[in-house]
Each structure stands twice: as C-alpha cells, then as structure tokens.
Specification:
The structure holds 2 protein chains of 2 kinds. By secondary structure, chain A is mainly alpha-helical. Chain A has helices at residues 3-25, 28-58, 63-68, 74-84, 90-103, 117-152, 157-171, 174-188, 200-204, 213-219, 223-260, 263-270, 275-312, 318-327, 331-359. The longest helix of chain B has 37 residues, at 211-247. The chains are: A mainly alpha, B alpha/beta.
Chain lengths: 365, 422
C-alpha cells in the first residue's frame, strides 16, 4: 500500500470511528455542526493550497535557475521547465496542482534517485506525527497541571514562579532549548541520544510497514527497537513540549482564576467542599474549554516548532525534509511538502473544532 | 487576546481608572502607569530599559564591541574567561622585574627560552621596541639580552633557580602547568604589553572571532529584522484592517478569508518557502517575515473598527453629518492605536524569533553575517566541545524577545486595567 495513504488511514480510521460514534450518539444539532464543519474544511484546504501555489509563483525567483545554478544552458533549462510543466499557462498549472493534491501524486523529486515525492513524504510524515503528538500531550499535561496549581496559589511564590516560567519559555528560541537539552542530557549527563529516531543498528532489524516506529515495533514484537525509539523520542518531545507548554500554563491559569470567581464556585465553597475538589472538579473542567481552542491556534507554533526541532535533532520528519530539499533546490519536493503542511493544518483545526463542540455544547453554527 | 477596554462598573477603583483613562492621551497613560498600578510599574520600566539598551547596542555596536565581528582576532575555541596563550616573562618573585623594560639594568642579561618556541623572537621584538622608546625619550638605558636556549621549560626554570639566567620567556599556559614546582618563580605578565588587552570575556569561536563582539553586532541584525518587518506589516495590515472593517461587504469578506488562512498557516514554514524562492539577503528575510504578520494587525484592527463603527457616538457623529474620513480619523483611529502599539511590541519579539529560526536553518541571511541564529547553527557542530558557542547567542535572543514581550504585556496592562485583575 502507498505509505502516504497508510499514514492517513492510521490517523483517519480511529478519528473516523470516533466521528461515527459521535454521529450515532449525538444530538441532531451536533450532527449538523459536524457536517458543516467537515464541509468547511474543503474550502480551507483549497485556500491554503492556493496560497502556497501563488506565493511560490508570484515571487520573483525562478525554480529552474535555482535548481540548475547560473551555469545551466538555456536548452537544459527549457527542458526542465517543460518537464516541470512551468511553461504552461498559470491556470493550467494551477489546475494540475490541485489535481495532484486530490490524487496524492506530487511528481518526482528533482534530486537523488528521483523518487516520487509522495513516497518520500509517506516516510517523513509519520516521523513528524510521532514527534508532535507526544509533544502536544506533554505540553497539555504541564500546562494544565502547573496552570491550575498557579491559579490555586494565586499571588504566592509558586504562582509568580509559574508565570515567570511561561514568559521565559515563550521567549526561548525552540532550537536553542533543544541545543541546551542536548548539551545537558546528551553530553554532560549522557542520558539520552541526541540525534535520529532509532539506533542505527537496531533500526536495521525493524520491518517498516507503517513508518511509525512505535507502531512498527509493537506489531513485529521487536521490543529492543521500541525501547530504542522511545529513548530517542525523549529529548525532541521534551523540547517541543516545553516550548508549547508556556502558553498552556498561562491560559489555564487565567481561565481557572476566572472560573474560581464564578458564583457556582462560591456556592461550592459555601457548602464546605474541600478547596482541592473545588479547584480541580468545578473550576478546571470549565476552564478547559478555551484551552482546547488554544490547541487549534497553536498548530502554527507547533508545526514551526517541529521544523526547528527536527533540524536540531536530525529527526527525519517533514520539516527536515523541507529544509534539506530547499538546500538541494528541489522545487517539486518543496512545493509538495508545504502543501502537505497546509493539509495538516486544516485537518488539525477540524479535529480541534469537533472536540471543542463536544466539550462545549453551546458552540453551533 | 482580549483587548477591550471595558471597565467593570460598580467598583470605585475601576470607576476612577475609567474616568482618568478618558481624560488623558496615549503618552500620559504610559507615564501615569505608576500612579495607577502601584506595584506593577516596574514591569514596564525594566522592559523599557532593556529595550532602550538593545536599541543603543544596535545603533552603535562599534562603541561596545572591542573587535570586528568578522575577523579572526584571537586563537580558535578559546573558552570564556580563559586567557589566550601569550609569551610571558617568568621571573623570581623578589627580582622586581615586571616588564622587558625592567631588564635594562646596565649590563647584559641572560634570558632563558625553550628551543623551537617563538619566545626568543617575541622578546627580541619587544626589547627592540623598548630600546627605540628609550632613545626617543632620551633615557640613557638599554636592554641587552643574551638568549640561552634550553631543551625543556623545566630545565630553563631550574636555570633561573641555579642563577644561570635571570629570567625566562615561556608560553603562559606551559608555565601554569609547572608553576606548582617552582614556588619562588612568577608569571609577571606578557612580554608584549599589548597582548594582555586582548581578553575574550565570552571566548572565541571556531574562526577565532570574539563571541561577545559578534553578539553585540548581532543585536543590530536582530533589531533591523524585527523592526522593519513589523513596520512593513503594520503599514499594510492596519490600513487594510481599517478599510475592511469600515467598508464591510464583499471585499471585507474576501480579505478576511485570505488573512485567516494566512494566519492559520505556520509562519516559519511560509517564511522558509519565501526566502527559499527569493534567495538569501536581509531584505528578503524582512519581506518574508513581514508577510507573516500582516494578518495579526489586520484581525485586531478590523475587529476594533467594527465594534467602534457600531458604537453610539459614531452613530451620533454620522447623524450630524460627519464624513467617513472624519469618523475614521477622530473616532476609529484613536481607539485602534493602543492595541496596535501592543501588537507591535509583541510582534517585534516574534519577528526576531522567526528571523533567528530562519538563519538557524541556514536560510535567509548570508553566512558571514554576525547573526545569533547563524552563530547557534555553527555552534551546534561543536556542541560536544565548546558549550559557550551555543549558550550565549541563545541567551541574547531570549533577552531581546523577553524585553519586547514584557513591554507589550506591560503596555497591555496599562491600556486594559481589567487584565490586571487576573
């Protein structure tokens, strides 16, 4: 099976099952919301893809010249331009571009073995997902835990400490945090590997069916590979997760403080319910709604962060692929990778919106 | 980001803020912050001082940086605080010698050097220089040396103790290793007096450039990128937002859809694409980053324009026959300015971060530029041996970003007292 399709199935099937469940059990207004929201995703993908296409075309640079360098002869240039379809009228190019997205056929890479770009992306996308999923979970855990903690101890030392943490971590360049972690845990303490997804020797023993190393090693029962993969995941996940967590700490704190001032919290306090229970059961639950929305808004930071984290840790994901292919001036690969990122953004915001609608039944179109 | 300036009614404190806020203008609001927010004024002050400091550094880096950022000025990979290896004068503690000039004692003096080291040339050059200076000043003195060559430094130092030679010239590092065995001998200073002024507080990098000087010059690049790209997005985003919010209709909807999708897209990735097509130059980096932040201004300004447009006082003005231009300049514009100032400050910080990210990836800036991102990328190659090369540029980025973000937050508190309740 095509690796890219397989990746989409691995992510899509559980999501689809969840969706069907919501659809069967949910109210009719919820059903209507979900249908509308899914319908709205298509134009969003279309707009983002169009944006990518025109940004790459409008700018006064020439992919053919940059691919061949200044010494390329006019005939060779013309030939490449013909092959890339860049000499056609722009609308025909645009149509073909959209067609390629629908069929997941992005053409062939301009460098190396000239493999189809979609094959290469199929190997890279799982790596990126394996990085950002645990990082998001980590960021949420830290954010909710510390944010609530700070809110419950408002204006005390620990509150100021967590506020400082969220400001400082926001100001840190993510690649620098990665470098510091490499220095500390990789070099000084020697606890974790600082590059790659899996130990090179262990990696050769693993059958890559899905390209999700964790899934692959569980399927094949290769526990050494699983251990190595998890070990390699520690530092990149920590880097991305910590940087994201700053915003979550901050937002959770603000929202919990706000909900702690609500009447029902006062009522709960008046009834003598323990403070701990009030904070975590009453306030936190209601404060979570805006935090979930924030995940949607953080997608941009998440993916940009993933590009930098992948570069620092030599993580063979989409971000590193993009940077590599820019250096080797592979126009086809660059355009397709950015388009994939656009689809990714649309999908994540769709998922976040649906989760949000489950948590807050007031949201309806 | 909630930027409404609504004040909760019924609280006397808040009422007072509300009335005072209406009375004063933009600049006075900042100056009055201390009076209104007692404890938190230092927040703005500290960040403002930092921002001003960085701006000064960026304007006149040559005043603060001791060396050129692009030239080799010392040995490679010198750790912070470590002094560069110089040819030093080793003399007995009680001899009273501290420079080559002190060796002019009227008679020929014997000096020990180690074979194969540049020590003898260093001391000859220096004694020539000193003698020339004596002549010029009319002092009747002359340094006259007899160079004794020893196989090892140990032998040379023993020679001093035995009284065969008066002093020795050696690399200061080599002496440091042996110093314990010779308690009566001292490293009294470098042979060439100019050598000791070259100290590198933050060390040197893989090209022998001074890390501190590169950091200081890097401020200029960072602030140029931060300010110019933010200004470009401001001058495009704000008018577009005013226009879209004020006119409404189909143009508004089209612009909003465009801006929303631009906003949703990961900025760094778009910037990567743009700089990849445009090629490396600081101008192209500014263009790429400016494109990313147009939607930030657009969204806030459009939202505020919409809400101001619906307010009663604008309706009143319109019914009195005010033209669109007057409504925009008198009512909409003043309401929008404070939030634009806040976004601008935070935006500069974001732009600097994005710019550093771009140059870390090796895109955007020419590789010789003294830029923090480039320094960090190069430092990663030697992370195992040279910790200082990745530490200090990162601290610099963080401090600049922190200063601008904190200033934005401080401004936000000033213009939106309600937030302080949080």
């Amino acid at each position: 099976m095509h690796p890219l399709l397989l990746t989409f199935l691995i992510i899509g099937v559980p999501a689809g099952i969840g969706l069907v469940y919501i659809f069967v059990r949910g109210t009719s207004s919820m059903r209507r919301y979900i249908v509308t929201r899914i319908a709205l995703t298509l134009p969003m993908v279309l707009i983002l893809a169009t944006l990518v296409f025109f940004v790459l075309r409008i700018l006064p640079g020439d992919p053919v010249t940059s691919a061949l360098g200044p010494k390329g002869s006019p005939e060779v240039k013309e030939q490449l331009r013909e092959n890339l379809g860049l000499s056609d009228p722009i609308l025909i190019q645009y149509g073909r571009f959209l067609g390629n997205i629908v069929t997941f056929d992005f053409g062939e890479s301009l460098v190396g073995a000239h493999r189809p770009v979609s094959d290469e992306l199929g190997e890279r996308l799982p790596a990126t997902i394996e990085l950002i999923l645990p990082a998001t979970v980590l960021a949420l855990l830290i954010g909710i835990l510390f944010g609530t903690w700070a809110a419950a101890r408002r204006k005390r030392a620990s509150d100021y400490g967590f506020r400082l943490y969220s400001v400082v971590i926001y100001a840190m360049p993510i690649f620098w945090l990665g470098l510091l972690l490499q220095l500390l845990f990789g070099k000084v303490l020697g606890w974790a590997p600082i590059a790659g997804r899996i130990d090179a020797i262990v990696g050769t023993t693993l059958d890559r069916t899905t390209n999700f190393i964790v899934i692959d090693s569980i399927i094949s029962g290769n526990w050494t590979a699983l251990g190595s993969a998890l070990h390699h995941m520690i530092l990149p996940t920590l880097t991305l997760g910590l940087v994201l967590s700053g915003v979550f700490v901050r937002l959770t704190r603000i929202n919990v403080i706000e909900t702690l001032q609500e009447d029902y919290v006062t009522a709960a306090n008046a009834r003598g319910i323990r403070k701990h229970a009030v904070t975590y059961r009453y306030a936190l639950k209601n404060a979570m709604i805006p935090v979930i929305t924030l995940i949607g808004l953080q997608v941009a930071i998440l993916l940009a962060g993933a590009v930098l984290t992948e570069t620092v840790f030599s993580w063979p994901g989409m971000g590193r692929y993009l940077v590599e292919r820019i250096s080797s001036r592979d126009f086809t690969a660059v355009q397709s990778t950015i388009t994939m990122f656009a689809i990714f953004v649309a999908m994540i915001s769709l998922a976040v919106d649906i989760i949000y609608s489950l948590l807050d039944p007031r949201v309806r179109y | 980001m909630a930027l409404d300036t609504k004040v909760p009614m019924g609280e006397p404190e808040a009422m007072r803020w509300a009335s005072e806020l209406e009375d004063v203008g933009f600049v006075r609001r900042i100056l009055m912050a201390r009076k209104w927010y007692h404890a938190d004024w230092w927040f703005v002050t500290i960040s403002a001082v930092m921002v001003v400091g960085f701006i000064v550094l960026a304007l006149v880096p040559q005043v603060f940086a001791s060396f050129s950022p692009q030239e080799q000025v010392g040995p490679r990979y010198l750790a912070p605080g470590e002094s560069p290896d110089v040819e030093a004068l080793i003399a007995p503690v009680d001899s009273g010698f501290s420079t080559v000039g002190d060796l002019a004692v009227g008679e020929r003096i014997s000096v020990a050097v180690v074979m194969g080291e540049p020590s003898s040339e260093a001391v000859r050059d220096e004694s020539d220089r000193v003698n020339a200076a004596f002549k010029e000043q009319g002092i009747d003195a002359q340094v006259s040396l007899r160079i004794e060559r020893y196989e090892t430094l140990d032998a040379a130092l023993t020679g001093i103790l035995d009284g065969d030679v008066a002093v020795a010239i050696s690399s200061s590092k080599a002496f440091e290793e042996l110093a314990e065995n010779y308690p009566t001998l001292n490293d009294v200073g470098p042979v060439a007096p100019g050598a000791n002024t070259r100290s590198f507080p933050l060390g040197t990098n893989q090209l022998g450039q001074d890390v501190l000087s590169r950091l200081i010059w890097g401020t200029r690049i960072a602030l140029i990128i931060g300010f110019s790209s933010s200004l470009v997005s401001l001058f495009i985003g704000v008018p577009l937002g005013l226009f879209a919010g004020f006119t409404g209709g189909k143009i508004d909807r089209a612009l909003t859809v465009l801006m929303d999708s631009l906003y949703a897209f990961p900025g760094l990735i778009l910037a990567i694409a743009i700089t990849a097509v445009l090629g490396p130059s600081i101008f192209n980096v500014i263009v790429a980053i400016a494109v990313l932040y147009i939607p930030t201004y657009f969204r806030i300004v459009r939202g505020q324009t919409l809400s101001v447009k619906e307010s009663l006082y604008v309706e009143a003005a319109r019914s009195l026959g005010a033209k669109a231009r007057v409504i925009l300049s008198r009512y909409v514009y003043p309401n929008v300015i404070p939030s634009v100032a806040i976004i601008f400050s935070v935006n500069v910080a974001d732009a600097i971060l994005t710019g550093a990210g771009l140059s870390f990836l090796g895109l955007g800036l020419p590789p010789t530029t003294p830029d923090w991102g480039i320094d960090l990328a190069r430092g990663q190659e030697t992370i195992q041996t040279a910790w200082w090369l990745i530490t200090f540029p990162g601290v610099a980025v963080m401090l600049v970003v922190l200063a601008f973000t904190m200033m934005g937050e401080g401004l936000m508190e000033i213009f939106n007292p309600k937030l302080r309740e949080r």
